[in-house]
Amino acid sequence: MRVNKKKRQAYRPSDHVVSRESAVSSILGSIGIFGYLILVGASFQAAGNGGILLGAAAWVLFGISVFGMMLAVRSYHDTASIRVWKVVGSITNGAVLLFSAALFVIGLI
């Protein structure tokens, strides 16, 4: 009888294990989303003249989301943990990256 080595290596006592990378990437993605909501609100209050501080904060959020996306992709290598938080981290960080790219392109126009 053949034993699947991958299955044997992936065994953990609990099936509700969340990998550290996926949890951190989900948290960083939610920080990015809420951070952009705060920045958009501050920009509306400043009538579009937020200045360099709002722009620098947006670049910081972009960097956080890049790091979060790297952690989300790295967390897919852990096959024993649940996949929900991996997907949540990928989606939230991807949304923040797309919003950052859209703001950058709009700023160039």
Textual characterization of the structure:
The protein is mainly α and 109 residues long. The protein has four helices and no strands. The termini are far apart. The model has no long low-confidence stretch (mean pLDDT 83).
Classify the secondary structure makeup into a structural class. mainly alpha
Helical run tally: 4
What fraction strand?
Answer: under 5%
Q: Which spans of ≥5 residues are poorly predicted at pLDDT below 50? A: none
Which percent bin holds the helix content?
over 70%
The total of beta strands comes to 0
- The end-to-end distance, rounded to whole angstroms, is 64 Å
Q: What would you say about this model in short?
A:
This protein is mostly helical. 73% of the residues lie in helices and 0% in strands.
Task: Please specify the SSE layout and strand pairing.
Layout: H1 5-9, H2 20-45, H3 52-75, H4 84-108
Main traits of this protein?
mainly alpha, 73% helix, 109 residues
